[in-house]
Amino acid sequence: MFVLRGRWFAGLVSALVVVALLGAACGDSDDPDPTPTATPTEVDAAPDPTETAEPTPEATETPEPTPTVETVFPADGVLPRSVAYGGPVWELTDAVVTSQRPADYVAGEDGRVVEQSYVILDFELRNDSTGIGFPSTQARVQLTLADGSVIDGDDVRTTNLPPASSSEARYAFEVPHGTTFEGLSIVIADPGREPSVELPLSGDAPPVEAPQVTELGEAAVVPLPGIEMTWTLEEQHFGRDWPLPFGFRGGALFVGTRSEVDERWLGLTVEVLVEGCDCRGGTLDQAATVRLFVDDAPISPEARDSSRELMNAQTTSDVMLVFAVPAGTLEAELQIGPLDEPDQQVRVPLVLPPTE
What we know:
Blueprint: H1 2-27, E1 71-72, E2 81-84, E3 89-100, E4 113-127, E5 141-144, E6 150-152, E7 154-157, E8 165-175, E9 185-188, E10 199-200, E11 212-222, E12 227-239, H2 254-257, E13 263-277, E14 283-284, E15 291-294, E16 297-299, E17 303-306, E18 310-311, E19 315-326, E20 331-336, E21 346-351
Antiparallel strand pairs: 1-3, 2-3, 3-4, 4-8, 5-6, 5-9, 7-8, 9-10, 11-12, 12-13, 13-19, 14-18, 15-16, 15-20, 17-19, 20-21
């Protein structure tokens, strides 16, 4: 009996030891508590109700400075003043130094202001020619500043100029701030052409350039067989602008009507009279074969016009001729008659004005 109970007790003890060992083994796990535990989260402290949040300052844009309106006018009595170029007379009617945009500028009104300064010149062009029109009043106008700098103008406003009419043109020049009219001057000068007279924008104005007109009254008999023909030279026009109201069918540009550099235009008006004519079908007035001789060198006309090229007895023809001659020419000869018949030619001497 005692033996049996002892064995039972020893078995119980062994079972308890096994259970204890299994429990110890389970206790070695990295997570002794398999139940997940919430990780504590830091909570921001509530703001103190006594503290007031400062407002975030709003970004403000700094306005750009408004350009200053700069307006300067010529001295009293300076305008209007005129300069001749290409045939028409250019009368300067208005002038201003301004910071307003040239295309919009109107005297006495507020226009669009820009940061740059401009000299704005308004011209009225008067075309007294009854036979020549200009499809454009565009030309190169140059402004000379007081320090000698030369600025080409922009033709802001140009139009056409029909015969015996007037038109307007505007030119603008970009100039330094603070520019005044003292010491300023302009010239009209297309490339390769004689420039206009310099026109100052202060002080006294120079005389307006004009062709020099000389009354001639020189008569010459053309020795044509069986024909009584007399050429009477009436007037001589000499200068740098196209001298007579003909030529340029369809219109002219100023580069065509202003003489080339170191040249002058010579215009002649002539009356051709045929009293007797032993010729069937008439005779030519000889305008087509006229030559001008300068230092024995022949010069053909730049243009010619005849009111009656084919003539009969008791008829007249009004002839106009224009030649380009070297500047400084003082003497010339006009040859009239067939080019291939020296015995039927006549020469008329001409005296030209000194070149200015």
